[in-house]
Specification:
With 195 residues, the chain is of the alpha+beta class. Helices cover 46% and strands 31% of the residues.
Length: 195
């Protein structure tokens, strides 16, 4: 009887873990600048459940301010970590394609209103952006546009990014990398740096 209950609990936990690895997280980022006002948000959802949501600009609460310990700059530790990173790089390198394989772009949108003091600079910079955006806008999920402002110097606009992130390939590549001693040494040194 007790083995059946333990087996059922293990099976439920395994199914939850498998769901977390296979069902993608939805990541949304939006920022907008109009005159001197900057606003936006960052959000992570899973199965339509909001896990993280941060508004931009963040509200600072007086009570939550903590006094941070001053950390001394230790060049020897940083050089040690750099050497360990170089040693571990061959094992960390597979994380990059695993991360790229795990991301699915839903949409990317950039809308700018640019102006500089010189109309020549305004036309030149907007021309560069138009030439790049004419290539990127052929991708259905990407929309980039810019509007020149020859009257005044300004940088206004909005940026929106929505993507899906599936953790399975990242976790597999991370576990494979973590089995190597240089990677474990690097992680240990980084954890000691934060103490």
């Amino acid at each position: 009887m007790i083995y059946t209950i333990i087996g059922a609990i293990i099976l439920i936990l395994a199914l939850i873990l498998l769901a977390i690895l296979l069902i993608p997280f939805h990541i949304s980022f939006y920022i907008q600048k109009r005159e001197m006002n900057i606003s936006g948000y960052f959000r992570i959802r899973w199965l339509k459940i909001r896990i993280i949501q941060r508004d931009i600009p963040t509200e600072k609460k007086e009570e939550e301010k903590e006094v941070k310990k001053e950390r001394k700059f230790n060049l020897e530790q940083l050089l040690k970590i750099l050497n360990q990173f170089i040693e571990a790089f061959d094992y960390i390198k597979p994380l990059i394609p695993a991360f790229l394989r795990s991301i699915t772009l839903k949409n990317l949108s950039l809308d700018l209103n640019l102006g500089f003091y010189s109309p020549v600079d305004t036309a030149m910079i907007n021309g560069y952006i138009w030439s790049i955006s004419s290539i990127l806008n052929n991708i259905p999920l990407i929309s980039i546009s810019t509007t020149p402002d020859f009257q005044e110097s300004k940088l206004e606009g909005s940026f929106e990014l929505n993507l899906k992130l599936k953790l399975l390939w990242i976790v597999i590549a991370s576990l494979k990398a973590f089995t190597k001693k240089p990677v474990r040494d690097l992680v240990g040194s980084i954890r000691n740096l934060n103490k």
